[in-house]
Amino acid sequence: MTRFNIRKRDGLARTGTFEPDITPGIKLPAATDTGVLFPSLAHAFNTNIPLPAPKSLIALYPPAIGEQPVSIHPQRENTAVSGDCVMVAGWHTAFANPRNFVEWLIQLKEKTPVDTAWYAPAAALPATVAILCYSGFDLFDYKAVDLRSAQGIFCTPTGEFPKDALESGICTCPGCLANDLKEHNRHALRQEIALVARYIEQGQLRELVESRCRMVADQVAILRHLDRQYLVLEQANPVGRAGIMRANSAESMQRAEVRRFAERLLSRYLPPKNADVAVLLPCSARKPYSLSQSHRRFQLAVGGRAHELIVTSPLGLVPRELETVYPAMHYDVPVTGYWDAEECAYIADIMTRYFRRHPYRRIIAHLEGGALKVAQMAAAACGITLEYSCTEHPTGTAELNALDAALAGERKVKDDRLHGMISYQFGADVDTRGVTLRGHYPEIYYSKGKAQIFSIDTTTGLLRPTFDGWAMIPEGYRVHIDDFIPEGDVLIPGVTRADPEIRDGDEVLVVGSKAMATGKAALPATDMARSRRGVAVRVRKIKKL
Amino acid sequence: MISDRMEKPLASWRGKERYGNEVLECLTIIVRSGGCSYGACRMCSYRHERFHTTSCEDLLLHLKAQLAWIMNQYDPAEYRMVKIFTSGSFFDPVEVPMAFHADVATAFHGKLLIVETRPEYIDEETLRSFIRLLDDGSWKTPLYCAIGLETSNDAIREKCINKGFTFADFEDAAGRAHAAGAGVKAYFLFKPLFLSEAEAVNDMRTTIADTVPLAELFSMNPCTVQRNTELEFYWKRGAYRPPYLWSVLTLLYESPVHMTCDPLGGGQARGPHNCGKCDYELVRGIRDYSLSADRELIGALLETRCSCKEEWEYILCHEQPWCMPLTR
């Protein structure tokens, strides 16, 4: 029995350890001589089935080689079980057609157990391994780099050159120093894999891939086609991350987490109950916004008399209550003042849908430039009239005075950050009367009576409920377990069912007949059902029943 | 009997062909027939070239008209050998009506004839009566049945070609042909769909060894990607690569018997090819070898230096059924 212990997930990518039957475990992602790892690969005579082959051919000639790796094919029923190493034969040919690459990948990912190690034979080059890992492959060989060596081609993560590059100073690895092309190419592959592993561990592989894919049109196309597989990508990506989310390319806008923010804003989020005046504000470089100089001034001018909505790219619209929530507190964008047409259309669409769902009596635009333009586009689309407290220099004294004047006589809107955050995170409409808060923003703790109910996780900006907090959330985000008392984390075999809305990093309530626990999901609910081993929930507190 | 109506066959040309130690003037004809009754081979596009007629009489008229055109076009005194391909089986009565056999045998009386057929249509009696009309005593073996055996490996022939007969069928058919006084020319297909370069080379080695006792003439076709074929479907998607010319040369050089080889599409993406730089010389050499049987020429070509040779050697060692083709 082989095993694959996943250590860290980042979208479809993983790091972990594959434990084969004979040789010691290997850390993935890795390139290795797979002929040694899987001796049966040498006895594969006449077993080729190309990736585009139809079901009928596979039915006649099932590509069975040996026990490991298990050969999987887009047109074949899954035969792999958890812990297997699966091989997609001929995957190196998939690069030729990005649409097929993604279509086949999704078909395979959907039917294969999650905790399987994925081997892409002859596909890994320093320039391809980032997008291969991003696509969910973990195991590679040296076939493609050794072929380049035989062809006299010098490989780097950003392209290939004739072998005289060996002496050009582009690289000074041991292979280059010894004028050994084969060693250089293998070294370059190992080095890139190490870099990719690092990015996965940091939860920033997307940023690396957005950067690495630029030199090859087909790779950019793969990235874009994958982004169109929103349902799969959204499931695979965590609800929160620590650190910066770099939204530096046009594709950043299509990233599942960016789209998810808008989808949840438009489907789950509930604005404060008595908010009938909205102020549209520009974003700030500093996050959360309210810690920036400009927003301190905006908030002073507004004086709590309107619901504050921040217009920003690429997220669209961020209500003040959600400013700490991933990725609102985390994203960074190149600011030029110029908003391109696609950006404008995308954001105006989000705003249009938001205002149709949540009508306000007055909407005051305190914006300039691109943000002002999208607000006008949205207003025109949903037939509302904007008021303007400025059209440029929103932080100017006169402009802030105009904003103050525009709000003269308006009643205070209840500051209900908790209500908004709960609606976004758990899809619940919670009565927050009697809730008090303490702490220094954004490290906030919410209590009701003497009991603490929620705190804000300052890395992801998401809420952390206590048992009393969970009592306020009537349904959803429950992980049901068998009748045992968890000792430490809840493992996958102990889970009987889980709310399909649960994603990696979600706060969940573990519910069993003998115990309840609070904790954080380690993987999405669908993957709990499709894996056999590993942690399902990292438990924070256990309560015996 | 020559028809009044004349109709051009699909193709015909005059050339030279090696036979024993002689080089013969040869006429090659590709006849448009009723079409291959089998027509399921993965690499074959000839199945599209047929008359869409249901009547045997009508088909016969077309065939006679093509023969008339040939007899009118080429002076029989100028060639001694005739090769007839029908894109199927000459001896399949559905494809080529029996009545036409006699016309052909009579028209080419005294010539050395090579006709293409699948093994199931080789019938001793048919061959005997055909030879009676053809033979004028000039040739020890006036008729050869050219059979596309492709490979002696049944598993490969079934999966990679879908040929629909076995090696045993070929052996039996060769026996019937020999009993009727005909010879057998075996056609091999080098590197069908689904085989790696090394698998394909080894398959040819075994096939040649297996077939030498059963046939007198041998020809190896390096696989070419024809239009509207299953093979083309895979080739277009990067899942198939025609063989390297280096492999073709190696096989010709090693073969214990002389094999003719016409690398159709040689040097092009759809045909057997190397890197594009060395292809032209090698293709020309292979064509020369078919006539001259000069083994030393092949040896010299194999020694040609080219940067793609190291790539080919790598492919032979490292391309596997689960990671192929490694190159395009």
Main features:
heterodimer; A: 545 residues; alpha/beta; Rossmann fold; five-stranded mixed beta sheet; 22% strand; B: alpha/beta; TIM Barrel; 7 strands; 15% strand
What would CATH call the architecture of the domain at 11-190 in chain B? Alpha-Beta Barrel
The rounded distance between the terminal residues' Cα atoms of chain A is 37 Å
Report helical residue fraction of chain A: 25-40%
Q: What is the total tally of β strands of chain B?
A: 7
Mean residue pLDDT of chain A: 95
- Which stretches of chain B are low in confidence, meaning pLDDT under 50 for 5 or more residues running? none
Q: Helix amount of chain B, in percent?
A: 25-40%
Strand order of the largest sheet of chain B: 1-2-3-4-5-6-7
Protein structure class of chain A: alpha/beta
Overall structural class of chain B, as computed from helix and strand content, comes to alpha/beta
Number of strands of chain A: 27
How does the major sheet of chain A shape up?
6 strands, mixed
Strand order of the largest sheet of chain A: 23-27-26-25-22-24
Question: What is the CATH topology of the largest domain in chain A?
Answer: TIM Barrel
| Quaternary status | heterodimer
> What CATH first level of the largest domain in chain A would be assigned?
Alpha Beta
Number of domains of chain A: 3
What is the count of helical runs of chain B? 11
- Give the overall form of chain A: globular
